[in-house]
UniProtKB/TrEMBL annotation:
<dbReference type="InterPro" id="IPR049492">
    <property type="entry name" value="BD-FAE-like_dom"/>
</dbReference>
<feature type="region of interest" description="Disordered">
    <location>
        <begin position="1"/>
        <end position="20"/>
    </location>
</feature>
<dbReference type="InterPro" id="IPR029058">
    <property type="entry name" value="AB_hydrolase_fold"/>
</dbReference>
<dbReference type="InterPro" id="IPR050300">
    <property type="entry name" value="GDXG_lipolytic_enzyme"/>
</dbReference>
<keyword id="KW-0378">Hydrolase</keyword>
<feature type="domain" description="BD-FAE-like">
    <location>
        <begin position="49"/>
        <end position="251"/>
    </location>
</feature>
<protein>
    <submittedName>
        <fullName>Alpha/beta hydrolase</fullName>
    </submittedName>
</protein>
<dbReference type="Pfam" id="PF20434">
    <property type="entry name" value="BD-FAE"/>
</dbReference>
<dbReference type="GO" id="GO:0016787">
    <property type="term" value="F:hydrolase activity"/>
</dbReference>
Amino acid sequence: MIPPELLAQLPAPHPDTAALPPFAQRADGVRTVRGVPYALVDGGRPLELDLWLPGPSTGEQPVPVVLFVHGGAWRRGRRDDMGLHTRSWGPGPFERIARAGFAVACVDYRLSGEATFPAPLDDLGAALRWLTLRDKELGIDTARTVVWGESAGGHLASLLALTHDGPRPAAAVIWYGPADVSAARPPFDPAAPDTMEALLLGAAPARVPDLARAASPVHRARAGAPPFLLLHGEDDSMVPADHSRDLARALREAGSPVELRVVPHADHGWYGLDGPAVEDLFRASLAFAGRHAGL
């Protein structure tokens, strides 16, 4: 018989209680740590996040949080990737956000090859729960969390902002995110079984209409939602700008604050824009986040 004390000691420490790994400190004081487990999924890989913490100039008060959600059509992507334009930035986008006074958590979630909706949304809620549990160690205030997502990550960040309580996010920054996976929007066909939306849901949206509506931010808009900033390219060939227009309309009709900016000449991922134009969108997003997080 296997000794019970052996079974108790074999697993790695649970993320809720495991010691945090050492942080690396940059010249500007920003501290970083990569690959911190935040949740264990039975039969799957541990879910991890990267952390960027601002330097000591922020003082002793806990700092607000940007919870970043990566894109990749719910099928692929890296937690530390904000999109094609930002990959060559130095300093990178997350260091810039930390320099502005935020902690940044770049979060893994289960992709559609691993699990279907609502698993990725559940994972983001688990990440926010873990950050709240470890807030004293990290010096953060998750009651001032801004969720920021791009593309598929924008879709999930929207849903997190609209559905999560304890704590409810303070604001949402959404870059060209899908807002409706239930209705036909060319080139998307809800009856097709092989779309990225169908892979997310585990079936063609037309076959699971209730689940598709539950997975659509435009159908989850409600009174009391946190403020939203929606940025979308007018010429987006992958996620039409009407997604953001319709989500903005639904939020306004519910009585919730929303700012919509449709960007001329921009395709998905800000393709077609020059560097200064993308820098402007980033600065506007960071300024919005700071206003609503009390910075």
